[in-house]
Amino acid sequence: MWPELLVCGLVIYKVIKRFFYDDDILDVETSDSNAMFLVGSRLEKLYGGKVYLGLRIPDPDTGTRQNIDMVIVNKREAVVINVKNFSGFIQVDSDGSWICTRGNAHKTERHPDPVEETKKQVAILESYLEQRGVALPDGYISGKVVLPNPKSSSVYPFPPEVISFDQWTKLKPEPKSMLSGWINNPFRGGKKDMQESIHQQLEFILFTAPMWDRLELKENKNLLGEFLDFKGKSEDIQTLRNIKRSKVSRLIIQKTSMLGLARSTLTVLYCARDIRNEGTSSSDWKEISVRSSTEVLFQPQNSSKVRKFKLSSITSMSLSA
């Protein structure tokens, strides 16, 4: 009798879990994407300026796009931030690669040298900005590697480009008496303010640069990747047929009612995709209503798996041009 009761209890548990929880949300709880958003949010709060997340900058040498976690810009400088959500004890091998060892089983992972990786990203970004008409003085764009995971450690000294978790937790904002710039810590550049016109042009180019699509999920979880399509009832799919990246910039999903047929109200921002026009005069917000069970097909960054998210688990979705 007990085996039957255990099996029955397991089935009920799985049904309840499937009804109340989205497994995809649970999977991304400690994802690299979420770590990036947390780092970007803290940098903006600490230093001001503007953070541009999830960039995909064209690399003319390879004909592909280089992923850049984020660039933070203020009037003094721009810094490429490479977020490494590594967990475990970190060692640097003779070839420059990083070896992370974690767990009692001493499971190891080998990663390419993130410092060299970041230097390459800085060079590609400088080339891209120059192609779009912004030639910054040498040294105005620098790069940093941030280790935000509290489970990361090392007894070896990191190069100055790396911000360890211990350094990351001790960062403090610059006194308000300072006009602009970074605090007196590893981010501090000591550079003069760039011209206002160049600063504005730099921000606009980064704002219109290729980037990953992004999902904001419930419980303050975020995910970068590529939106593929919607899946659901035919009438709902027909209602959503005009939501394409060529027309839509952002969707905001409002709260749903569980009385009767649960539905989600999507506030959709339709806008002209013209990077020459910085204004928003051509934007238009519209509301549409579909079933909350309608799913978003989304492929996360650095993953071959396509995930499905119910609209009821999504707060907003932003689509890159």
From TrEMBL:
Domain NERD: 31-148
Any Pfam family the entry gives: NERD
Domain of life: Eukaryota
InterPro entries named among the record's database cross-references: NERD (IPR011528)
PANTHER family recorded: SI:ZFOS-911D5.4
Protein name in the entry: Plasma protein
Species this protein is from: Thalictrum thalictroides (Rue-anemone)
